[in-house]
Amino acid sequence: MEPKQLKHFVALAETLHFGRASEHCHISVSAFSRAIRQLEDGLGVSLFLRDNRSVQLTHEGELFLAYAREALGEWEAIRNALLEEAVELSGEVSIYCSVTASYSFLFELLSEFRANYPRVEIKLHTGDPEHALSRVQSGVEDIAIGARPERLPAGIAFQPIAESPLVFIAAPTSSFAKLSGQKSAANIWRDVPMILSESGLSRQRVDAWFRKLGVTPDIYAQVTGNEAIVSMVSLGFGVGVVPQIVLDNSPLVDNVAVLDVQPRLKAYEVGLFTRARQLKSPLIAAFWAGAA
Predict the structure, then answer these.
(1) pLDDT-based confidence at 183, cuts 50/70/90?
(2) CA atoms of 79 and 122, how far apart (whole Å)
(3) I need a labelling partner for 124 at 20 to 30 A (CA). Which of 18, 118, 185, 213 fits?
């Protein structure tokens, strides 16, 4: 049984959603479904109960999940042992990050790593930064770049590489630009249309900011991806909140203004995520050391 089959199974067992699991594994839903069915046929049992609305592990699936995790752990151990015996490191490392992070951090990180370990293949996947941690937790990626949450999950290692303020932005010519420098008060912010992330660390900190102000924010739009927030704000639709690093790398940076809003939001601590046990891998350990 190939490790890829086990990784597919574990991804579905942890997400209980064919769409999200197939996305994590970078294959189509139809191909992913066939792979799971072939696994079940090979074992002679049903691992999942599924209908049009839900996916659940069967009893046999629960038993197989314990085996799959153990088998993947053993496979990683022997792979690491073989790599340690090798004269020169080789293999592949999968990395996940946002497009902004690829501009901001990866060039420097990969330039040095590639020069030191030319036989290591880098597999880079980009997407919503809010998925960075979950993709590492599920084993889909070896390393991800993202913002450190308030509480780091057990079994996850984090190495900071930068800090980015979280800022309020508005179109310079809009009426919202007048909010800059004013003392934050409930009567001022109650009717300001806000363009915010659907979820994630940024949204959590903005929601906490409004709660302290005693205001329920007027949500104009909730979007996925910070780049989309910059676009909507530049059109004058409302006030947005994004990490400064996103704004610095946006082609629309000259079309928005950073507002002087007090109290300021807690800054993002951006860094690398990996599973702590992965640091036993010579490949991951080499990349980790190079980023220090």
Answers:
(1) confident
(2) 17
(3) 18
